[in-house]
Amino acid sequence: MVLLGLLAGPVAAGTVTGVAAVVAAAAWTRRHRWSAAVLAAVGAAAAAGVVVSTHTVLIQGHPLAVAAERGTSAVLRLELSDDPRPLRGAGYGSRPGGVTQVLVPAELRGAQVGDATWATAGRVLVLAPPQGWAGLLPGQQLTAEGRLAPAQRRDLTVAVLRVDGPPREVGPPSWWQGAAGLLRDGLRDAARVLPEGSAGLLPGLAIGDTRGMQAEVQEDFRVAGLTHLTAVSGANLAIIGGAVLGLLRLLRTDPRFAAVCAGAAILGFVVLARPSPSVLRAAVMGGVVLLALALGRRRSAVPALAVAVLALLLADPRLAIDPGFALSALATAALVLVAPGWAGALRRRGVPPGAAEALVVPAAAGLATAPLIAGLSGEVSLVSVVANLLVVPAVAPATVLGVLAAVLSPLSGPLATGCAWLSGPAVGWLVAVADRAAAVPGAVVAWPAGWGGALLLAGALLATIALGRSPRRRAVLLAVLLGLLLVLVPARIAPPGWPPAGWAVVACDVGQGDALVLATGHPGRAVLIDTGPEGGPVDDCLRRLGIHALDLVILSHLHADHVGGLAGALRGRATGAVAVGPSRQPRWALEQVSRHSAAAGAPLVGLAAGQRLVWPALTLEVIGPVHPADRVDPDDGTAVNDGSLVARAATAAGTVLLTGDIELSGQADLLDAGVPLRADVLKMPHHGSRYSSAAFLSAVAPRVALVSVGAGNTYRHPSPHLMNALTEAGVAVRRTDLAGDTAVIVGDGPGPPELALVSRGDPLPARRRRRLTRVMEPRRPRACRFRASRSHEVGDGGSAARVVVSRAGPGPRGRPCWWRVRSRSGRPDRSPRRGS
After folding, report:
1. Would you say 422 and 401 are in contact if contact means Cβ atoms under 8 Å apart?
2. Cβ proximity of 809 and 817 under 8 Å
3. Could you tell me which residues come within 8 angstroms of residue 102 by beta carbon, excluding any fewer than 6 positions away?
4. Where would I find the H helices in 192-275?
5. What is the C-alpha to C-alpha distance for residues 285 and 232, in angstroms, rounded to an integer?
6. CA separation for the pair 396, 402 (Å, rounded)
7. Residue 835 burial by CB count (10 A; 0-12/13-18/19+): exposed, middle or buried?
8. Which interval of the chain is the signal sequence (predicted)?
9. pLDDT tens, position by position, 41-100
């Protein structure tokens, strides 16, 4: 009912509420044996309908919601309701996984729009820069000024406020929130004794503080189905309460005293992990699980679970569309209803009691939540159940030691550090399991997203369980599943014909980034050009090719989509050296490259135009950049792109021109310098963007064009006009977003060597974009001064397209302005020119 009211509106909710009231009256008058159950169900539905209808009507008539539809500016007085949540980006110049904005949930205390002022209430989301916002605590009051935008989700949010600067008139936090913040900071400091991946994971595992988690670890946990471990849930509270109960029972204290102490521990943990709606939900669900375990009565827990869900929905209706709430409720229901029966069946077959519970808890919770996860993410993890089983022994000790380190941090830094150090093996095991599970080829398979996908998987699971209950059908089911595994899994792990024999160049599908592998003539060894934005895809590509050592890794320039995967490429592979070009910006990227290189024992070297490197089946000649700039603004994406290292490779399959992300200026410099550009294979500059000149393409005259690009990227790469022009000119174009990994080999025809292309298929799916990006309005080119215009021809013959590029000067408050691009049709295509 609450979900219907939020999604369909108050009219639909009111109609169903009226029907529920009629049914309740009929049940009251009939006095049937089912009347009490029907009355309770429809009464709860009617109450929920009244609550959600009231909330939605108030939101629709809220004065701030009306102002948000017009996109007007406003000054709001707010009280934070939760910690600022980092929004991470992987833009051209941003640190991989670096925080680009923070999302701040807050409650309205007052609003001023123009001359109108209201003392009002309501939920508001603030999108703000990290500076001045990231360290705020729940309960603090402040004033924020920005531009309003309508909320995109039907979760009773009044409006979204986009803020460019720090908050004003910031009030102090409450004493308990300040104490909780001190403990959280103490845990992060104590965790620094651990390796980098474990140090970021321990606070997330213990108290849900994921601000320090590495982006690669987060991605591994997502693929392995372990993300729930870093979100505060009933399991955390059950572990803390269970540890206190177990300790006091060992001391033979009074059971009621032990229960009071366990309750106090849970209450303190709620304050430590922030009493936000999600944490309060976890506290209730964890209390239900503890109640079921304490009473040993499964039937007693079911009414408690139902009452808990109903009470939470009536108190906060927006939880109805919160995925975390649904996952928590489903997992708790599985633990209460399914897990005891499964554990009893295993014990009857001789499995020890502790091992039986350890096996069924993750299995039951994983199967119960799998349909919803599939509908939300559009994918199904095939390794999640196994990964969850493997991490069971490590979760409890790591959680308890992490919480203990947080509690001891104000009292004794060495003791807190000691607790964090003791948790190192358990946390390291979690990192290792996630890393290995995410590295399994085909660990995640695509699945239909939305309600349809969730219902489809739920039906498949129910059918499988129903068939498995009959011994005769169970044998048939096992035979079918085994056949599917034998047919589908090998095809996903090692597709027939991959890698192709005699490959010379492979463009790896690493999403929106570059990674090319060049054969050197030594089996199992290669030269890698760029590493893509993340470590997993490039590591998978090299593993599929059988590359166990890298003679050289060349980073064309230091943008995140070219260097972000360096750690994954170096993982477990002997590496001769890591080379960078003359451009050393941005500095954070160079420091990261240096750190990863040193960790892998590979020296960091520099390359410049004129150098020549030779292997038995490969010769690399560095030909650019021709005029390396001494100082480049790291925020100027075009300047960093034009500083890309350019190389011409002689391979068994012909010559290959490796261009990095050079744009019009860098291409013109190469043409003016008269360096040899003719090549059989062209790695398209800048992911096939429109900024490739006709003169440059004519000088290269390639037979094959490799476009390394990610599916569904937000940069509109590659340019359709450019791709059509290349195809009409007889160039064989292969895009990694459509073809997956693509290899260039030597054909078998007589006469001069003929190039052949072999694509692996199974390209990486498009990334699911955050809903919040829909409310982020583009910066309009107000007060922009266009200071230069250049005209360029792209393509040749009848397919030529003329583009006029006007570069804009500084905009208001130093913001970047637009580049204005006009095609031959004269229709402007406005897109911000900010790197890749």
Report:
1. yes
2. yes
3. 84, 85, 86, 87, 127, 128, 129, 130, 133, 134
4. 196-207, 215-224, 234-250, 255-272
5. 11
6. 10
7. buried
8. none
9. 666 666 666 666 666 766 777 778 778 877 788 899 999 888 888 776 544 444 544 567
* 527, 554 contact by CB (below 8 A): yes
**C-alpha–C-alpha distance, residues 217 and 164, integer Å:** 30
8 A C-beta contact, residue 194 and residue 415:
no
* The predicted structure's pLDDT at residue 30: 60
How many CB atoms are closer than 10 A to CB 704?
23
Structure tokens that stand for 71 in this block: 């996109």
Would you state the pLDDT for residue 829?
35
Write the CA distances from 598 to 216, 566, 574, integer angstroms.
18, 12, 12
Asked if residues 678 and 477 have their Cβ atoms less than 8 Å apart, the reply is no
What is the token pair recorded at 396? Answer: 């409890």
Per DSSP (E only), the strands in 343-384 are: 379-381
682 CB contacts (<8 Å, ≥6 apart)?
656, 657, 659, 697, 700, 702, 704, 705, 706
Query: How far is residue 779's CA from residue 818's CA, in Å, rounded to a whole number?
Result: 8
Tokens of 802: 């003329």
Amino acid making up residue 13:
A
Q: Tell me what pLDDT residue 473 has.
A: 72
Amino acid code (one letter) for 605: V
The C-alpha atoms of residue 703 and residue 705 are separated, in whole angstroms, by: 7
Q: Six-digit token pair at 589?
A: 């990227």
Structure tokens at 794: 């792209």
Q: What is the token pair recorded at 829?
A: 């295509």
The span from the first CA to the last CA of the chain, in angstroms, equals: 46
Closest CA to 283 of 253, 261, 312: 312
Nearest to 123 by CA among 180, 59, 189, 71: 59
Q: How many residues appear in the chain?
A: 836
Distance separating alpha carbons of residues 585 and 418, to the nearest angstrom? 39
Q: Specify the pTM.
A: 0.62
Kindly state the tokens that stand for 659: 């261009």
